[in-house]
Amino acid sequence: MEETRLDTYQDLFDVELALGRHANVVGELQRLVTQHRFRERLWASLVLALYRSDRQADALAACRMARKTFAAELGIDPGERLRELETLVLRQDASLGAPAVNEKRRARQRLDNLPAALTPMVGRDAELGEVCSLYRSDGCRLVTVTGAGGTGKTRLAMAAAARLGERMPDGAGWVNLSPLTQVKQVPGAITAALGLEAPVGEDPLKIASRFLQARRLLLVLDNFEHLEDAWPVVLDLLTAAPELRILTTSRRRLGLRPEYEFELAPLELPPLDPPLPLHRLREVPAMELLLSRGRAVRPRFTVDPGNAAVLSRLCHRLDGLPLAIELAAAQLRQLSEHDLLIDLEASLAALPAAFRDLPDRQRTLTATMEWSYQLLEDSERLLFVQLGVFANDPTTEAIDAVRGPLPIGAPSTEELLSALAGHSLLRRYTDQAGRRRVFLLQSIREFARDRLAMLPAEPEVRRRHAGHYVALAEALCPLLWSQDQVDAFRELKADALDLRASLLWAMGPDGSKNVALALVGQLWHYWELTGDVAEPCGIALELLGSTLDAPPALQAPALSGTATLCWMLGRGDQASGLHHRALQAFHNAGNDQGVAWATMCLAVQAMQRDDAANAQRLAAEVLSMPRAAQITRVGALILLGILAFYAGDHDQALELRHASVELARPIGDRWLLGIALTNLAESTQQAGDYGAAERLLVEAVTAALELDAQGQVAAFLEHIADVYVSTHRVERAIHLLAATDSYRADRGLPLYSAEQQHISSILTRARKVAGPIRFGLAWERGRGLTLRQAFNEVLEGACSTEAAPGPAPGPTERYRSMPESVVDPAPWS
Length: 829
Known about the structure:
Blueprint: H1 2-18, H2 22-35, H3 40-52, H4 56-74, H5 80-91, E1 111-112, H6 125-134, E2 142-146, H7 153-165, E3 171-176, H8 186-193, H9 204-212, E4 218-222, H10 231-240, E5 245-250, E6 259-263, H11 278-281, H12 285-294, H13 308-317, H14 322-330, H15 337-346, H16 365-373, H17 378-386, H18 396-403, H19 413-422, E7 427-430, E8 436-439, H20 442-453, H21 458-476, H22 485-494, H23 496-507, H24 513-530, H25 534-545, H26 552-568, H27 572-589, H28 592-608, H29 612-624, H30 630-646, H31 650-664, H32 670-686, H33 690-707, H34 713-726, H35 730-747, H36 753-770, H37 772-783, H38 787-796
Parallel strand pairs: 1-3, 2-5, 2-6, 3-4, 4-5
Antiparallel strand pairs: 7-8
Helix pairs in contact: 1-2, 1-3, 2-3, 3-4, 3-5, 4-5, 6-7, 8-9, 9-10, 12-14, 13-15, 17-19, 18-21, 21-23, 21-24, 23-24, 24-25, 24-26, 25-26, 26-27, 27-28, 28-29, 28-30, 29-30, 30-31, 30-32, 31-32, 32-33, 33-34, 34-35, 34-36, 34-38, 35-36, 35-37, 35-38, 36-37
């Protein structure tokens, strides 16, 4: 089929040359000979077209290039026709002249008023090919390129028109609609772009239709969005001229039956984690454009190991919008990329107007958004502004909640969201949980947020926003302890930014401290599972200092959760004080399950202080409580197993740990099961069965990563490293320890002294086996791994369970730290 297509092209070129249209085919022939270097007919047509275009030197150069190509790559001389052409060109033979055109059939002049590109188009090769290919579809005559402001619709249309126009016998015409203000001006603008004059009293649309009736050309109508009521003009032209092709650009589709829509997305973004190698990073479209435009103001600007992460984050902050990237790159004249990112993190409005040759609506991102905003109906504008309250992608239910009660006859949320999507202001999608969500680019979201700040009803919008997310937390957070925890965790993660925004609002002067307490009391375990606890811990401590008189039922969960966050950050004394306050608050609220939970937490802290007797007493007390929840009982068994293990009663420890695993499995809590498995692995390792210990630990990490909660994965991987050192896989052990060390350092998560001693002992053994150089190399490689990548190494390197035994850790080396949060699915109810 490709051969047939090329043969047909060649026949068409012969016809064009015979009609005297040699100048029109030079560009296409030059492109084709670079792609199909061994087709002699194409070379011959190119030589003839160049010669007839008064480019004899170029024609001779083409002959010599063809001869060189055939000789160097095929080892043969070109055919007789090419050799003869070279001789005729050297002689400037009259036979090569263009044929005389019959005066009665004079060749029509091609239309070519496309604006010249001022800068090269970067990163849009795939999109350009897709737009052009649409016209090869059966019956496709109208394509609309849609997309948000700043995505580069006009630039893509220019490139597509240039490529398609070469194949249209009558060329391509360009009509810029952006200066027009009324629909009735559109026919006159088209007529003028076609080079026609409309006498007074004649309909310019009829004049354009007669002109186009017998012609095959491409007509581009740029910036159609503010004149969408002019759609009958497009339909009339297509009806009158059967060979006409039309390409429009707009922020929304025209809504016509013959229309094919091509939605132009922002440029592809580089991944942040894991980062790409530099040579691949430079090829990512958003980065490619940033580097290209950056070099215009800083000639040696490039991406290197020192700025790769910053430039990648810049691309993400700018949403991959070509306009935003160009405006940002212009600031690199006076700012470093690091300072530019700091400015843009505060607000995208920090991008000033940078180019005089851009239309007013594109001088700044704000102007671009304003252009779209003014095209909306009043009800669409109100919902768009209300969307500014969301920090991330809201669900339809969240948007309904923020809108509040509506008057009879008001447009539905679905109708308004569809309208805003039609204006390319948002995109709809379905998340992993099957919920319909709405995505807005950061620039659009910030514009809506600024508009919301001017709305008199803003406080009520934020109150409804916080109310919805409190209800969401109350519904999902208890499920984090059940079979449904994976789905619950994913939903909370998807809404994490809005949950945080609700908490910050509730802490503010217009907020509600009771709402803030409810959020902390529900969300603390989600934060614990993620491992990112520093910021929420600070917020929670500030909140508790100002809510001393809150009702005990509301205060107790927040006190207990904040205590656990403090404990994770190494603030043991502060955590202990908060747990004692929580225990009293649970007593005052009459919450027996909460009392059992707080007692369990105090037992864990007693163990961390090496107060084994008190820890054992409190754990036994928990098991004797009739209303203690099943998960709390599992925690007590885990704690007693730890105490037995380090007291040297390994048989009792093994029995307790087996019991905790069997009790934890049916609950479905992967996080709790991982803790029980890790402790059982410790006893199994002590007994010399390293293969069984490794299998248990792999199961623990797999369960935690299935939940995608990395708060405890680091500790589990450190256990695997212990097994690896004992079974002579020292490099893999070093990789794991380096990865967990990097993870803890990034999040400010300290180790208790017993844990530090344990990890130090593993490192000492690993360094002794590996030696300083091998250890250092392995450590540096491991520090570059995420926890998931480190675990993938575990899976790839899993070996026989019959590994050689090594020394088991002694009872004085450490206590196996057990996270405090072992609680029932509805502990406070």
